[in-house]
Amino acid sequence: MNASSTPSTPTSFSFEGWTWLGRFFEAERPARVVVAFHGFGRPMEEMGNYLPLHPEGTAMLSVGIAHQNGSTVPTFTDAPPVLEPALLLEALEAWLAELGLSDLPKHLLGYSLGGRISLALFEYAPEAWAGMVLLASDGFKKNAMYRFAVETALGRACWAFVDRHAEAVRSFIRGLRRARIIPAHLEHFALHHTEDHAMRQLVSNTWKTHRLFWPSRRGTAKAWGQLPQRDVHVHAVFGDRDAIIPWAWSRPWRHLGSSHVHFVTVNSGHVMRHPETVEAIHRVILGASNET
């Protein structure tokens, strides 16, 4: 199952040259709204699978992240424009107002790459959010490949080389797997993200546009330190079998929070959208805080 069986309607919002497409999951008498961000290459509708993590009366705006699911960025000729958290937050607030939801408590929900975006938004403006759920979230560790490919001129040149000589590079990746130098999941991950020119451009553009969406431990500690006064909870859920974003990556962050920050695991790999996994996530969230 990919898309949620819960019905949703298309919506979009344009702001200062950026256009985000989204899916709106309505509630009959909404009492809160969840702003959800999907994982890399995943459909917006998929986030509707996680609505059971929230009580009845929850509406959801599932946002297509820039470059994906039809969401577009201002015109560029060389490097894609860099999105700032302040601009995205302003756009989201105006979008929710347009949907008639601006007066409701606002929660964040992020899966994988969407978790990194959520973390950065929460750090930037913690008072804007009444809660956050992170699922298999990126953002807790900036790996060496990302630092090299996005943050150095040599790395960007190497990524361009990969694009020009993709088949040779992909053969090399397969050779590393045959020699058991890399595990199967890493081979699959690398081959998927280099499968054709469009995918390689999507990877590069998405990384570059969202390069400011990396939370800092110092800023996050400050944001999380305010949670008890507002009775706001943050839940970070990891799959205990996740080889893409392992539980160990959260270790330096676990001591940053107060009693209102909950790092937990469920019996899962990186994929969490299946009903039995969503139910398990709901149980651990309730067990951690009796709050969703």
Task: Write a brief structural summary.
With 292 residues, the protein is of the alpha/beta class.
The total of helices stands at 10
Terminal Cα separation, in Å? Answer: 24 Å
CATH architecture of the largest domain: 3-Layer(aba) Sandwich
Give the overall silhouette.
Answer: globular
Task: Give the count of structural domains.
Answer: 2
Low-confidence stretches: none
Q: What is the CATH topology of the largest domain?
A: Rossmann fold
Question: Can you tell me about this structure?
Answer:
- With 292 residues, the chain is an alpha/beta fold.
- It folds into two domains: 9-142 and 215-289, 3-Layer(aba) Sandwich (Rossmann fold); 144-208, no CATH class.
- Helices cover 37% and strands 17% of the residues.
- The protein contains ten helices and eight strands.
- The protein has helices spanning 85-98, 113-124, 144-151, 153-164, 166-178, 184-192, 197-209, 217-225, 227-230, 275-289, and strands at residues 9-15, 18-25, 32-37, 58-63, 106-111, 131-135, 234-239, 261-266.
- The protein has an eight-stranded mixed sheet with strand order 1-2-4-3-5-6-7-8, with helices on both faces.
- Helix 5 runs antiparallel to helix 6 (184-192).
- The model has no long low-confidence stretch (mean pLDDT 91).
